[in-house]
Amino acid sequence: MSFAADCKQELCMIENKRACCLKAECYGLLLFSKCFSARESQMVCENAAVARRVAEAAAVSAGVYAEVRSQLRRKNIGAYAITIPGEAARIQMIRSFGHDENDVNLHIHEENLQKDCCISAFLRGVFLICGTVTDPQKEYHLEFSTPYLHLAEDLVAVLHRVKAAQLSPSIARRKNSYIVYIKESAAIEDFLTLTGAVNSAMNLMQIKMYKETYNNLNRVSNCETANLDKTYSAATKQIAAIALISDKVGLDELPADLREAAVLRLENPEMSLREMGERLSISRSGVNHRLRRILEFAEQLGSPEESLAEQSVFEVEEKLHAENAKTEEF
C-alpha cells in the first residue's frame, strides 16, 4: 500500500465518540464527495474503507442510503462508484447540513464546525474523500482536490483556523480542479496528527530525520573530499617545485628549515599542513610559510609543472636519498 493509503486506512479506524464530531466528519466526507447535489451524480473511490465510510456517513448523519458498487478501472485497478439514489434523498442529505438544493455555489457552513474537535473531524473527512499525501521518501506534499473554487477558498480558511499548527495552505489550478496544498514537512506532520493519523505522522518524522541525517553526512563527506582534493592539489604543486629544485640545483641549496619541510612533503604527499606542523614542531601557518618560500624559490628556477612531468615522485625520492647519502659520507 502507498503512504497515502496507509494514512487513510489509519483514519478509517478512528471512531467518533462525540455526536458533533461525527456530524462534522460526515459533512466533510459528503460536501467534498461530488455527490452533494440534488442532481444525480457519482463519484469514484479506490479505497474500500473510505467508500464504506461515506456510506455510513450518509446513513448516520443524513439518514439517506448511499449505493456503493465495485467496478474495474484502467489496468484492472479496483474502484468503488458511490451514488445517492433518489432526488428526495439527495435533497434531504443537503438540507441536513443547512444547505439549500438551489445553491449555485457551494460553501462550507460554519455552523457545522462549532468546536476545535469538530474542525479536526471535518478535515479528516475532507482528506479521506479528496485528499492525498506523497510518500515522504520522495517529497513533502499534501493536497486536496475540488472542482469548486469557493470550496477551495473556504477550506483554506478552515485550515488557517487550526490553532494547534501553522499549516500554511496554498491554492493552485490544475485542469478542471482547484488544489489546496501544503508543502512544509512540519505542517504535514501537524495535519496528520490533528486528524488522527498519528502513526503515519511518526513514520513521516522518522523518514525526515533519516533524510536529514543522511544529507548532513553526505554534506560532511563532500566537504572532506573537497578539502582532500585541495590538499592533494597543493601537495602536487609543492612536490613539483621540490622536484625542480632537486633537479636544477639540489636541495642542499635550500635553507635548513626549508629543506626539512621539503623532505617531509616529498615523503608524505597526503599529509595536511596541521600534521606537518606537528612533525616539524611548528604552527600550521609556519608550515604554510615554508612551503610558500619553497614555491617562490622554485619559480626563480623555472616551471615546477614541467619538472614534475619529466620526473616521477619516485625518481625525485631516489635522487634525494642519493644526495642524503653523499652528505652523510662527508
Automatic annotation (TrEMBL):
Gene3D superfamilies: Homing endonucleases (3.10.28.10), Winged helix-like DNA-binding domain superfamily/Winged helix DNA-binding domain (1.10.10.10)
Keywords per UniProt: Cell cycle, Cell division, DNA-binding
Domain WhiA LAGLIDADG-like residues, every copy: 120-213
tRNA-binding found in the keyword field: no
Any one Gene Ontology molecular-function term assigned to this protein's record: DNA binding
Record's keyword annotation contains Cell division: yes
Coiled coil: none
Residue ranges annotated for the Sporulation regulator WhiA C-terminal domain, each copy included: 218-298
HAMAP family given in the database record: HTH_type_WhiA
Function: Involved in cell division and chromosome segregation.
This protein's name: Probable cell division protein WhiA
UniProt gene name: whiA
